[in-house]
Write a structure and sequence with these properties.
The complex is a heterodimer of chains A (114) and B (112). With 114 residues, chain A is mostly beta strands. Chain A contains no helices and 11 strands. In chain A, 32% of the residues are buried. Classes of the chains: A mainly beta (114), B mainly beta (112).
């Protein structure tokens, strides 16, 4: 019940296209859902985050869509660029137990082709 | 503004050797974490320290020990390295549960 399931494992998108990465969870106590972006040789960095009281959050070309009833959330990257090529991790945090530690998905490696 | 600094960047050990991975943050964060990253496995929590003076096990603590030396520093020790501990290790820190995690750039460890 503590898992966050992320798909796909890898994604290839043409420049200018839309990249979509999906995550699903079971624990209804999760109340914070961030996405992290990781470039090769670097640590992950927070990209965008959402709380379950809103259905969508947009920051520039990056949008999180959240479906509380389906227990799913997704990252959309509009007008994808080669510079967006990275590994993306979804995560979830519960306010109850586990000291509020983040549970990460297994990651999606995105390649944006020029 | 260094953020989270990890040393060393790379390390090769033989089975049975010991070593300590160092982590320091200059953001005055309360909580610090050690993760390991393996292909297809995502980020798995090894140990964490919610505040200075406390440490707790995460998802995969076996074979590791930690020390929260002070508010800035959190070290991870491998007492007797095994090939299964070949991984990239990340240290992270945060103010608390409602704040983002800040990661270091990792230590790539190979155990032969």
């Amino acid at each position: 019940q503590q898992q966050v399931k992320q798909s796909p494992q890898s994604l290839i998108v043409q420049k200018g296209g839309i990249s979509i990465i999906n995550c699903a969870y079971e624990n209804t106590a999760f109340d914070y859902f961030p996405w992290y972006q990781q470039f090769p040789g670097k640590g992950p960095a927070l990209l965008i985050a959402i709380r379950p009281d809103v259905s969508e959050k947009k920051e520039g070309r990056f949008t999180i869509s959240f479906n509380k009833s389906a227990k799913q959330f997704s990252l959309h990257i509009m007008d994808s660029q080669p510079g967006d090529s990275a590994t993306y991790f979804c995560a979830a945090r519960s306010a109850v137990g586990s000291q509020g530690n983040l549970i990460f998905g297994k990651g999606t490696k995105l390649s944006v082709k020029p | 503004n260094a953020g989270v600094t990890q040393t060393p960047k790379f390390q090769v050990l033989k089975t049975g050797q010991s070593m300590t991975l160092q982590c320091a943050q200059d953001m005055n964060h309360n909580s610090m974490y050690w993760y390991r990253q393996d292909p297809g496995m995502g980020l798995r929590l090894i140990y964490y320290s919610a505040s200075e003076g406390t440490t707790d096990k995460g998802e995969v603590p076996n074979g590791y020990n930690v020390s929260r030396l002070n508010k800035r520093e959190f070290s991870l020790r491998l007492e007797s390295a095994a090939p299964s501990q070949t991984s990239v290790y990340f240290c992270a820190s945060t103010w608390g549960v409602n704040s983002p995690l800040h990661f270091g750039n990792g230590t790539r460890l190979t155990v032969t």
